[in-house]
Write a structure and sequence with these properties.
α8 packs parallel to α9. The N and C termini lie far apart (about 45 Å). The longest helix has 24 residues. By secondary structure, the protein is α/β, with parallel strands linked by helices.
């Protein structure tokens, strides 16, 4: 029996696509290797959202050359966002001639076909964009949670973002197919479903059957199972009041909302082509808080976008302090060839970007600690993910609003709902003990 090893980089979409790759390989009779050293096939599932990610991946691909020397029959495949970029597949093949297969983001199904006829004298490069939505069996590895794609691609064309160029235009799956997949997963014991899309709120806009994201949420929320429903990621301009209403209405739709703002300055948002203003975003947050008071908001925020002034950055800091996110992914703008932002004037010096990111992270850390402190003494329901990687007798799981909780249990409670009283907090993490029902 041949074995595979998958190296995954990037977002939740990539994680789920690696599950699909694993499903293909297991259907072909492959088993999972414990390391790349012992694999007959190594798959790199890549990300290109930032330059540092690409550099890291290229370094890891280069390291495989010595394994190829030891084992000439080793098959190396590269797929995902990085290889989908214009001209990158050819560059990869020229730099790393030992790569056997290079696939893009929408043709993973070709992996099975190519492996069936793979020889060392033949290699495949196929990064053509396909508009059809092809679903594949997945070998799921995310515990009690199951990822479910509802929409692929993106139509927004933010000036800093490479995603529309490597994942294509928006393509929604049929509602009946999504409901059938979720029902199957729930019947087979999954307790949490996370809906995925570059912009989940856009779901259904490309269909002509009246489908919408709020209608899909309502249909899934009324399925007759005890489970949690989450979704990633939302675009503020499409987070409409009907979505807020349906999230507020159903207890099993998690009150954890990821709402990337990117900047707190209207001028910068305009340059980013985000199509909303600072005032619109703050008003949206107020609407969410009014109808979902216990919502845990999180965000993505970028510093150092071309032309960002000290005043613009001050607006971002002020917005963070007003919104009070439970958590926030803060990062420095990374130029991506092929995007309008790459050619913009007034690129911000690295020293300025570094100082700004430090201030932003420091401000958010204070807020995160204060919000975590508010959970002390409360009892919350947790869906248990499993054992904490650092401790052999400590389990972990998340609250409805997304807070990570650690606690001890005298039996394996993975995949169960348990009540935990929070005794203390540490930054974004909570610690507690099980409360018997």
């Amino acid at each position: 029996m041949k074995s595979y090893f998958i190296k995954t980089y990037g977002c939740q979409m990539n994680i789920h696509e690696s599950e699909k790759i694993a499903g293909i390989l297991r259907d072909l009779g492959y088993k999972e290797a414990d390391s790349d050293q012992n694999a007959d096939l190594i798959v790199f599932n890549t990300c290109c959202i930032r330059e540092t990610a690409e550099a890291k991946i290229s370094g890891h691909i280069g390291e495989v050359s010595r394994l190829k020397q030891k084992n000439p029959n080793l098959i190396v495949a590269v797929c995902g966002c990085m290889s989908q970029q214009k001209g990158v597949a050819e560059q990869l093949k020229k730099r790393f001639p030992f790569i056997n297969i290079i696939l893009g983001t929408s043709n993973l199904q070709l992996l099975a076909e190519e492996l069936a006829r793979q020889t060392q004298k033949h290699s495949l490069i196929d990064t053509a964009e396909y508009n059809t939505v092809t679903e594949m069996n997945s070998y799921r590895t995310s515990g009690a949670n199951a990822w479910v794609n509802i929409i692929y691609g993106c139509n927004n064309f933010c000036t800093y973002c490479i995603v529309p160029y490597v994942r294509g235009r928006e393509r929604s799956r049929k509602e009946k197919d999504i409901v059938a997949e979720v029902s199957y997963l729930l019947e087979n014991g999954y307790k949490e479903i996370t809906l995925l899309g570059q912009n989940v709120n856009s779901y259904g806009k490309d269909l002509d059957d009246g489908s919408s994201f709020s209608k899909l949420l309502e249909k899934l929320a009324t399925l007759p199972y005890k489970y949690r429903l989450r979704f990633l990621t939302s675009h503020p301009k499409d987070f409409t009041e009907d979505i807020i209403d349906v999230v507020a209405k159903y207890d099993n739709i998690c009150k954890s909302i990821h709402l990337p703002v990117q900047s707190g300055s209207t001028a910068v948002l305009r340059n980013m082509n985000r199509r909303y203003t600072r005032e619109y975003y703050l008003d949206l947050v107020n609407k969410i808080r009014a109808k979902i008071p216990d919502a845990g908001l999180s965000s993505d925020i970028m510093v150092g976008f071309p032309g960002e002034t000290d005043e613009n950055f001050a607006d971002t800091l002020d917005l963070v302090k007003q919104v009070r996110y439970s958590s926030c992914f803060c990062f420095i703008y990374s130029r991506r060839k092929g995007t309008p932002g790459y050619a913009m004037e007034n690129q911000i010096p690295k020293t300025v970007k570094t100082e700004r990111i430090k201030q932003l992270i420091a401000a958010q850390n204070v807020i995160t600690r204060e919000i975590s402190k508010q959970f002390e003494g409360k009892t919350v329901e947790i869906l248990v993910d499993g054992l904490n990687d650092k401790y052999s007798d400590v389990y972990c799981g998340r609250t409805d609003c997304g807070k990570l909780v650690n606690f001890k249990c005298d039996k394996d409670c993975t995949g169960e709902f348990v009540n935990v009283k929070i005794n203390r907090s540490q930054s974004a993490t909570l610690f507690g003990e099980i409360v018997k029902k």
